[in-house]
Design goal:
- This protein has 423 residues and is an all-alpha fold.
- It contains 14 helices and no strands.
- Helix 7 runs antiparallel to helix 8.
């Protein structure tokens, strides 16, 4: 309605401008004819023509400014109208998104379900394109992530349990450390997610192996059933032909040949190798020993023990994403453990809380049996004896590229200082 009103004023102003421009042209011509002597005007008529010319000129300027303002308003109104139309179209697109995703034949059902789940978890004012949704869904499936709400709830459970353990401790023994308060529950959650992913990977591998075995057994069974039926038909036919008075020996021999061939095929099915399914289980992460952390950076045996422990868990990870995640989790776990260990008795309560949560949510435990700790020390010593600590790596170079960068930068700075002094 507003745009229609603007258009009406637009047309009226254009008409007034044309009307007054016509008057200006007429009045200018009259004055020109008077000055050239073609058509002399009386003094009053000349004055009237000059006055009308001035008024018409002012009106044209006024109407043109008004028209310019209207055109600006009209442009803004059109822009706003186009914006509203675009937003309406986008709303229509996102309103129909769930139905459209369900009908998408290019994507698997798993990806569709994951995309729909993501839509439900997004804030009301946040929307993703279909392509973006499926990219996120694909990555979620690849990483083996469980429902994000479940992870959020799990973190809340860990934080609550952490707080409960701290609440049971005497205030005088409790050393508040903001960094650990923040990171500790998150690291526990990361361990929980990693162990869940490893368990899911093992379950998927077991299921895949079982399906493969079942498929082979089904194929063998189907083939044997078909061959048995064919054998029965041929044996009945052979009996019938042999019972005939004028039996055809060649035909009987042909049937016998078919039966022999079928029997050979049947015997081959018995020789088909059936995949052996070895059910894998996850018995938890290997136990670590406290002295590895206590003596870290001062004992190469402790370093190698942690390195081997980290490698064992890394081998449990299947995907590259999991291995990268474990490397990050390991670094953060070592950081917290080392920090708590260095604080000694002051942090025993935090230390106990951390270990208890990891045992509950990730089955990660410290080795507490001396009969297991002592043999492990012997093994670690044997491993480190095999290492040649006097040998450098193949690309060893004391002059690293970053060191050279710093030296060049320092040299350039010194040269610049000397030049300033000279000049």
């Amino acid at each position: 309605m507003f745009l229609k009103d603007i258009n009406g004023k637009h047309y009226r102003l254009e008409a007034l401008i044309k009307e007054n421009e016509a008057k200006i042209a007429l009045q200018k011509q009259q004055i020109k004819n008077h000055e050239s002597g073609i058509n002399k005007l009386s003094r009053m008529s000349l004055s009237s023509a000059e006055n009308s010319l001035e008024i018409s000129t002012e009106l044209v300027e006024k109407y043109k400014k008004m028209l310019e303002q209207l055109q600006t308003l009209e442009g803004k109104e059109l822009e706003e109208k186009e914006k509203l139309a675009f937003l309406a179209e986008r709303k229509k697109y996102f309103d129909a998104q769930p139905s459209r995703i369900k009908l998408t034949i290019e994507q698997s059902n798993d990806k569709k379900l994951e995309a729909l789940r993501i839509i439900e978890e997004l804030p009301l004012d946040v929307n993703f394109e279909d392509k973006e949704l499926f990219e996120i869904a694909t990555k979620s499936i690849d990483l083996g992530l469980s429902d994000l709400n479940d992870i959020s709830n799990k973190l809340a459970d860990i934080k609550n349990e952490f707080q409960a353990i701290k609440d049971q401790t005497d205030e005088k023994d409790l050393q508040e450390m903001a960094t650990i308060d923040f990171f500790l529950p998150i690291i526990v959650l990361h361990f929980y997610v990693l162990s869940s992913n490893i368990i899911q990977n093992i379950d998927d591998a077991n299921e895949k192996a079982s399906r493969k075995k079942e498929a082979v057994l089904k194929e063998i069974s189907t083939k044997q059933e078909e061959l048995t039926q064919s054998l029965q038909v041929q044996e009945e036919l052979l009996k019938q032909k042999q019972s005939e008075e004028n039996c055809d020996k060649k035909e009987i021999e042909h049937i016998q040949s078919i039966i022999k061939s079928l029997n050979n095929e049947f015997n081959k099915t018995k020789q088909i190798e059936i995949p052996k399914v070895k059910i894998k289980t996850f018995s938890g992460f290997p136990k670590y020993q406290d002295w590895w952390i206590k003596e870290l950076w001062v004992s190469h045996q402790a370093y190698f023990a942690l390195y081997k422990w980290k490698e064992i868990i890394s081998n449990l990870c299947i995907t590259t994403e999991q291995k990268k995640a474990w490397s990050i989790i390991f670094d953060r776990w070592v950081f917290i453990k080392k920090l708590l260990n260095d604080k000694g008795k002051l942090a025993y309560n935090y230390h106990f809380a951390f270990d208890s949560l990891l045992s509950t949510y990730a089955e990660l435990e410290e080795e507490l049996e001396m009969k297991n700790i002592e043999p492990m020390e012997v093994i670690i010593n044997q491993i480190t004896k095999k290492e040649d600590f006097s040998k450098n790596i193949g690309f060893h170079n004391i002059n690293t590229s970053y060191l050279q960068f710093n030296l060049d930068r320092l040299k350039s700075k010194n040269e610049g200082t000397q030049e300033d002094i000279l000049f």
